[in-house]
Amino acid sequence: MQEGEDTSLVSLSGGIPLTELLAAAKEAGLDLPKERARPLGRILLAGLLGALRGFSERGLSPFLPTHKHIFQEIVQELTEVYTFLSEEPNEKMVLQEACNFGIKKVYHLEWKLYSSHDLF
């Protein structure tokens, strides 16, 4: 992944308001303006956008005490695999995969907290 590539996160946002992304970044301990300029930062923000999209798709509030820990988990897990991700030259694909990762994390959280209890 080339540093400085101008790949927009807007296409991944799915209409998520900037205020929600700012709040999610804060929960994860990230400085949004600073992160947008770094390759790892863009990946982390894409993961957070994915989580916000996942919460929206599931009709859940992202900032409930039982939910908001997911933002730090996403940042931690994506940071751990950054060395691998940084070798991929297609930044758009990496950002899309990070976004999908965030969505899947929320779906798993929703299953763990709610759906599995309904079934069992």
Short description:
By secondary structure, the protein is mainly α. It has helices at residues 18-27, 32-35, 39-58, 69-80, 82-85, 91-119. The longest helix is centred in the C-terminal third of the chain and has 29 residues, at 91-119.
Keywords:
120 residues; 6 helices; 66% helix; 0% strand; globular
Low-confidence stretches: none
Number of helices: 6
Q: What percent of the residues sit in helical stretches (DSSP H or I)?
A: 55-70%
Structural category: mainly alpha
Order of helices and strands: HHHHHH
Average pLDDT across residues?
A: 89
Number of strands: 0
Explain what this protein looks like in three dimensions:
This protein has 120 residues and is mainly alpha-helical. The protein has one domain (16-119). It has helices at residues 18-27, 32-35, 39-58, 69-80, 82-85, 91-119.
Please describe the topology of this protein.
Blueprint: H1 18-27, H2 32-35, H3 39-58, H4 69-80, H5 82-85, H6 91-119
Helix pairs in contact: 1-3, 3-4, 3-6
